[in-house]
Write a structure and sequence with these properties.
It contains 10 helices and 10 strands. By secondary structure, it is α/β, with parallel strands linked by helices. It has a single domain, classed as Alpha-Beta Barrel (TIM Barrel). The strands form 2 sheets. It has an 8-stranded parallel barrel with strand order 3-4-5-6-7-8-9-10, surrounded by 5 helices. Strands 1-2 form a two-stranded antiparallel sheet. α1 runs parallel beside α2 and α3 packs across α4. The radius of gyration is 19 Å and the shape is globular. The two termini are about 25 Å apart.
């Protein structure tokens, strides 16, 4: 498909999602006001898709930035696509809507464009986002994900959200929802880690076959947050093959890493709080990777996950035992 800065995908429910989103996660040590500044810069540059989550702890700041850009006439609310996420301690059906309403209140928005289940891995319901027992082990919970999904459908019916989807699900977990009796709305997307070292080709193929959009996070590697990332993992943007392709096109490695995913039909989330990079990352619409470029980048896949969730390997809903 031809891509330009206003490019979007039409979701299975008829709504439109811009193909590039601005990611707002940052390690804990990063001051929250940088999220506010970053979102303002991103909207000025042309981003119309903002990806955030309750657990990032910055929805107040992100909401402030969105409202500032609406107030100064840069955008209207309808121009923006806001994604929020249901945290793992709110998956019991009766906690879903209050969690969404809390985020909307923090954002000071009337509705979200998209609300997704952050992860199939569920913790004990309550206000502690990472509940531990007295021995320091995570306290798990195991709601039937289909019951959580029904509660999301009700939020959509109530007009609090326009589209609903999931994140970090494997194909079997997606099928559980797709095949559930009385399904009203199917997930419009599955947001997962996706980049040249983890290209998700099987999951992408599966999602395309079900008219589910694959949204990629950590597309440039990762923020290398010590809490989540193995500090010895390779730095994605230093990959020699990626750099050779970037040189050939006179582009940055980040621009090529994003363009590769866009050409495969993945919606990409780009994260940076540096204004120059926020702008650079959006300049991916005016060049094209040829078949040879795509093949050499395909060859980099090694199923490497930056985001380490192995601490929850023993969770009944741990998604990554499956091949895809």
């Amino acid at each position: 498909m031809a891509l330009h800065k206003d490019s979007y995908v039409v979701l299975s429910d008829g709504h439109k999602m811009p193909v590039i989103g601005f990611g707002t996660f940052a390690p804990q040590k990063v001051p929250k006001n940088l999220a506010e500044e970053g979102v303002k810069v991103a909207i000025d540059v042309g981003y119309r898709h903002i990806d955030c989550a309750f657990i990032y702890g910055n929805e107040v700041e992100v909401g402030r930035a969105i409202r500032a850009k609406i107030a100064d006439g840069t955008v209207e609310r309808e121009d923006l696509f806001y994604t929020g996420k249901l945290w793992s301690t709110f998956q019991v059906p009766e906690k879903v809507r209050p969690a969404l309403e809390k985020s909307l209140k923090d954002l000071q928005l009337d509705y979200m464009d998209l609300f997704i289940i952050h992860s199939p891995i569920e913790f004990k319901p309550g206000d502690d986002p990472f509940p531990l027992d007295e021995t320091g082990k995570f306290i798990y919970h195991n709601t039937d994900i289909r019951d959580t999904w029904k509660a999301l459908e009700e939020c959509k019916d109530a007009g609090l959200v326009r589209s609903i989807g999931v994140s970090n699900f494997n194909h079997k977990q997606l099928e559980l929802i797709l095949n559930m009796p009385g399904l009203k709305y199917k997930p419009i997307c599955n947001q997962v880690e996706c980049h040249i070292l983890l290209n998700q080709s099987k999951l992408l193929e599966f999602c395309k076959s079900k008219d589910i959009v694959l949204v990629g996070y950590s597309v440039l590697g990762s923020s290398r947050d010590e809490r989540w990332i193995d500090q010895n993992s390779p730095v994605l943007l230093e990959d020699p093959v990626l750099n050779a392709v970037a040189k050939k096109h006179n582009r940055t490695p980040a621009q090529v890493a994003m363009r590769y995913l866009l050409q495969r039909g993945v919606v990409v989330l780009a994260k940076s709080y540096t204004p120059a990079r926020i702008q650079q990352n959006f300049q991916v619409f005016d060049f094209h990777l040829d078949n040879e470029d795509m093949r050499s980048l395909d060859g980099l896949n090694r199923n490497l996950r930056y985001v380490d969730s192995t601490r929850w390997l023993d969770h009944p809903k741990y998604p990554f035992h499956e091949d895809y």
